[in-house]
Design a protein that fits this description.
Layout (H helix, E strand, L loop, with lengths): L3 E12 H9 L7 E9 L2 E8 L12 E12 L24 E12 H4 E2 L4 H14 L4 E8 L2 E8 L2 E2 L30
Antiparallel strand pairs: 1-5, 1-7, 2-3, 3-4, 4-5, 4-6, 7-8, 8-9
């Protein structure tokens, strides 16, 4: 049976260096022999390298797409000295809080934005799920099917949370009442 990704939404963020460390030796899903990481300016492409014979040479395998942004990360603010609480006064020298610029990989968007191409799509979803467990910020929610069974996934700030799939009837009503015009049985239209 095939596995599918039906719905996906991601707001994941993690330091780019941590992502690179993970991708150096990841647990590879079935039919994927390697992962290729390419950076073009501020865009990351993480592409599946399939086993030979699994995907036609003309079929692009699934890939994850992320943007890279620089974020200034501050160390904790020093605690105020006794008697100096309140806003700074003129003449007081403000102590600068030590900080550094850190590059973050952001996997943000829906399925077509974050997880592209259909060949080995579920395999790359498994890679994205592992990235979600390592993420400092953000959420990954998805509805997938594995071996014919629907699965709900929800990972918030690196921790798995309860999720469920609820199948509901569509908005169509069979009760006969409608709020619109019945064009088939309208006395003003001949």
């Amino acid at each position: 049976m095939t596995s599918e990704v039906y719905k996906l939404h991601s707001t994941l963020e993690l330091p780019f260096e941590e992502l690179k460390d993970y991708l150096e030796d990841p647990d590879l899903p079935e039919h994927v022999v390697d992962i290729d990481l390419t950076r073009r300016n501020n865009t990351l492409i993480i592409k599946a390298v399939p086993e030979e014979g699994i995907v036609s040479k003309y079929t692009p395998p699934a890939q994850l797409k992320a943007s890279v942004t620089e974020v200034r990360v501050y160390e904790e603010e020093p605690e105020a000295m006794p008697g100096t609480a309140g806003p700074p006064r003129w003449g007081d020298e403000e102590e600068e809080i030590p900080s550094e610029l850190v590059e973050y990989a952001a996997f943000k968007g829906d399925r077509e934005t974050v997880l592209q191409n259909s060949a080995l799509q579920y395999a790359m979803f498994e890679v994205l799920r592992e990235i979600a467990y390592r993420s400092e910020k953000g959420t990954l929610t998805a509805i997938t099917a594995k071996d014919g069974e629907l699965e709900a996934t929800r990972i918030v700030e690196g921790e798995e949370r309860p999720a469920s799939v609820e199948v509901v009837e569509g908005p169509r009503s069979d009760s006969g009442s409608s709020n619109g015009v019945d064009w088939r049985d309208n006395e003003f239209i001949s």
